[in-house]
Amino acid sequence: MKVLLVDDSVTMRRIQKTQIGTLGITDILEAGDGQEALEKLKANMPVDLVLLDWNMPVMDGITFLKTARADAAFKDVKIIMCTSESEKSRVVEALKSGANNYIIKPFTPEALKEKLGL
Ligand SMILES: [Mg+2]
Hints:
Blueprint (H helix, E strand, L loop, with lengths): L1 E5 L3 H12 L5 E5 L2 H11 L4 E5 L7 H9 L8 E6 L7 H6 L4 E4 L4 H8 L2
Parallel strand pairs: 1-2, 1-3, 3-4, 4-5
Helix pairs in contact: 2-3
C-alpha cells in the first residue's frame, strides 16, 4: 500500500509515519501542503491512500480534496481527513467534498486500521 502523508507539521508527519509503519506500511510519501501533495500524487500514481491535514499554508486540505476529487485520475485514491478534536464539526464538509473518512489525530495504528477496514 502506498500512502501519501500530508501535513505542514514535520513533527506530526514523523509521528504519523511511525504509527503507519507499525502496520507494516513502509511505502510512505510526504508533502507539507496541498500544492506539494498534488504534485507528489501526480508523480507517484497509483497511490492508495492520502492522509490529509486541514490547515496548511499554500493550499489547505479542503482545497486539495476538492481539486483531487475533480480529477478522474485520482478517483480510486482513498482520502482520509486527519482532524483535531476541535475541528470535528468540519468533517461533514470534508465528507461532502469527497473524503472517504476522517480520523482524529494523532491517531493510533489501531484507529487507522479500523478506518481502513483492515
Ligand atoms: Mg496543519
